[in-house]
Amino acid sequence: MEYLRGLKENLNLNLDLFNIVSIIDILIVAFVLYRLMMLIQGSRAVQLIKGLAVLLVATAVSSLLNLNTVHWLLRQAMTVLVVALPIVFQPELRRALEKLGGGDFFVRPLTQMAEDDRSALINEVVRATQNMSASRTGALIVLERVTGLQELIDTGIKVDGLVSAELLMNIFISKSPLHDGAVIIRGDRLAAAACVLPLSESRHLSRELGTRHRAAVGLSEQSDAVAVVVSEETGAVSLTLEGILYRRLTEVELHDLLVKFLKPTTTRSALSSLWQKR
Ligand SMILES: Nc1ncnc2c1ncn2[C@@H]1O[C@H](COP(=O)(O)OP(=O)(O)OP(=O)(O)O)[C@@H](O)[C@H]1O
């Protein structure tokens, strides 16, 4: 009897411990996995993970159906892949480790920032845009949402400064060495300037639009980022999202679109966009 009571108490204690420790454990793993997915999104690694998932499922199915030869072949392929992966993805791995060490891993995406901070950032972008529009200063400002833009950030020059209208205007002044190309904003930081974006090949774009606008549309076709363009020729302000170009925006229209498009994403929509075709 005594023994049974002791066993029960022991079990209860272990169950209590299991609950708290397991929940913390699961939360940590979920957070790390989520951040890892955000990190690799938009990079070549996404395609690779999809390929690996297919291979894993095929291996499991072949084992279940006793397809011995197919199963053996798939297992050999997996072994070769595991050895080849660190070599092929060496740049991505290095970047991920650098990010982890540099603290970028924990940068809060724009869409998940506190509302006041996001609203302050939008105001700075709108203020810079209006000033540059009035002075006909060409500009291309990219705001990262869920898709990681690390590969594009790497094409430019690292800035890593707090976003302000003054900083943006300073970068795009025509004599500035950083004025050519795009700036990319990640969270509340201006990550890099002079970045090269992919050009859109769309035939639906007006002929009067040059490469600055094509670059903004191109980026928005390949990622979920928002890009704001100020035309050097006309001072007109445009915004792109998902391949759509919103042209000749007033200050209020630009502000409202930014508020709308940068509103917080749910984890579900973030994850579903991770698996969208690029
Ligand atoms: N692939 C690119 N990525 C980022 N920026 C680019 C890219 N291609 C061009 N640009 C920027 O666009 C500028 C050239 O703009 P261009 O006059 O061709 O475009 P536009 O759409 O007509 O704009 P604007 O109305 O300002 O003249 C370049 O100096 C450069 O700063």
UniProtKB/TrEMBL annotation:
Protein name: Diadenylate cyclase
InterPro entries: C-di-AMP_synthase (IPR014046), CdaA (IPR034701), CdaA_N (IPR045585), DisA (IPR050338), DNA_integrity_DisA_N_sf (IPR036888), DNA_integrity_scan_DisA_N (IPR003390)
Family to which this protein belongs: Belongs to the adenylate cyclase family. DacA/CdaA subfamily.
Top-rank taxon: Bacteria
Record note on quaternary structure: Probably a homodimer.
Entry annotated with the keyword Protease: no
GO molecular function, one term: diadenylate cyclase activity
Transmembrane feature ranges: 17-36, 48-66
DAC domain mapped to chain residues: 90-251
PANTHER family: DIADENYLATE CYCLASE
Protein task: Catalyzes the condensation of 2 ATP molecules into cyclic di-AMP (c-di-AMP), a second messenger used to regulate differing processes in different bacteria.
Biological source species: Sporotomaculum syntrophicum
One GO biological process term: cAMP biosynthetic process
Upper taxonomic lineage: Bacteria, Bacillati, Bacillota, Clostridia, Eubacteriales
Keywords: ATP-binding, Cell membrane, Membrane, Nucleotide-binding, Nucleotidyltransferase, Transferase, Transmembrane, Transmembrane helix
